[in-house]
Amino acid sequence: MSGVVFPAGFALESLHRRHPRSTFDCGQSDVNNWLRTNSLQNQMKRLSATKVLFDQDGGIAGFYTLATGQIDFGDLPSELARTLPRRALPVAILAWLGVSMVHQGQKLGDLLLAQALRDCHEAGQTFAFVAVILDCVDDRAKAFYQRWDFAELPGSPFRLFLSSQTLAAMMTPR
Ligand SMILES: CC(C)(COP(=O)(O)OP(=O)(O)OC[C@H]1O[C@@H](n2cnc3c(N)ncnc32)[C@H](O)[C@@H]1OP(=O)(O)O)[C@@H](O)C(=O)NCCC(=O)NCCS
After folding, report:
1. Widest CA span of the chain, in angstroms?
2. Which of 14, 62, 66, 162 has the fewest CB atoms within 10 Å around its CB?
């Protein structure tokens, strides 16, 4: 996957308290509430990191939040767990992602996801993890991620994973 290029006039920044979060609306209240209410506090506590995409007018066109976590060996599919130790294992978490309703359908969701995965891959060169995992808010979000090779974790239809090997293959230029 080559470097992520956002359309002209759009810019990605780390979340800052001056950013206008209170009007963000992606049509999903959980996702809106996260950005409006929790994202900054969590970032200041070093629990998660959020990046915000600005449009030409300085409004928030989209965002994503990454965090680290652990997954139990037994929760991974056997083909991934086969070679791993039987204990809690490090993962990257794509905790939230949203595109404002006025900007949906312009491929910004795909671009933000590509950038989020690139961030994960680069961080993984320093702090290793076995997979990227995420929880889908609904069936539509699940369909969006499954287009990107995310697969269901056994017994958890709304929790998806992408192994670090698959991520590395995605990031390798062909
Ligand atoms: C899901 C979401 C991020 C997609 O953003 P977007 O900018 O509209 O998506 P894109 O324009 O990049 O679309 C890329 C592709 O995904 C598809 N797609 C877009 N939204 C989709 C959805 N909700 N479900 C399934 N597929 C979707 C598009 O049809 C497009 O496919 P194509 O390339 O074959 O035409 C956006 O709809 C959103 O913010 N939804 C509410 C919040 C949410 O569900 N977040 C995810 C869970 S935290």
Report:
1. 50
2. 14
